[in-house]
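User: I'm designing a mutation panel for ATP-dependent DNA ligase and want to avoid disrupting the core. Could you give me a predicted structure to guide residue selection? Please restate the sequence first so the numbering is unambiguous.

Assistant: Good idea. Sequence first, for numbering, then the predicted structure tokens:
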Amino acid sequence: MTLRAPVEPMLAQAVEAVPGPGVLGELAFEQKFDGYRALLFTRTATGEDLVLQTRRGRRVQNRFPDLVSAAEQLPDGLVLDGELLTWDAAAGRLSFEGLQRRTAARGPAARRLAAALPAYFVAFDILQQDDIELLQHPYRQRRLRLEALFTTLRLSAPWTLVPMTTDLLKAEQWLESRAQIPGIEGLVVKPMNQPYLPGHRGWYKLRRRDTTEAIIGAITGTLVRPQLLLLGRRDPHGTLLPTGRTAPLRPEAARLVAENLTPADRTHPWTGMRFASAWGSRATLDVTLVHPDLVAEISADTAVDRGGVHRHPVRYKRLRLDMSPEEAPLFATADS
């Protein structure tokens, strides 16, 4: 059966450590890029046009005219699974902010942004080739087909084959070193004999995490029983700017934090500000502002926007009562 968009992509579940082979058998380790998940459908034998589909099924090929043009070198009847990235030539780095701009633009704006923020497609799976669906083939075979495709066609930018290894030691080295490069945030672990299961969380993702500090500016819950901590950092002018929130506190941690909280006064810089319940969400949190004199040590993954804004909830580790807010990392230079 020939695949047609939309196809629900296979997903990964977050884990704290690299899973052992166990019943999973031999494992493949891929570098995890910080971009937008996308499926690329080239033209079909029946004349259907190219489709670039997001994880949620939205068609965005009109946002990426550079990729559409480059896809002329790809064969018909091909479906690739991968990650969309953009390169900021002025900054000399991958840019998640640029990717957001590109997915929102169309028409002349999309063409202008394609020149300033060229897109790349990092392929990590092949779901169809020559109009033949490959979902039931094990990952091992699909990977060989994907490698052969890149070799035979001599594909280069904007097409990139995701680095993969079956060597656990090499994967751990990637996690500790290569993951520090902006745009690479960890590993995806895949059983070599596993078929492609649309919508199923059969893969594993392991994000590299860093320990750092931030200022507690607000909470959810109550001063007696805080639930989440809303965090911030000061810019070079001393203004406290929001940088994210924690996952729910454990009872003992909540008790210790509560013992040190002080209600905010009217001079709090976040007065009147609204906070999203999740990155990119329109739902807001019911928060209580607190005096921003407490510093928390946190563990965070590398999905960080400019200035150190965390796109995922961070983990609270402990209070840094030995550190003043002025000693916490600055917003403008955090995690850069």
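For picking mutation sites, this is relevant: The CA atoms of residues 180 and 247 lie 23 Å apart. DSSP finds six helices and 17 strands in the chain.
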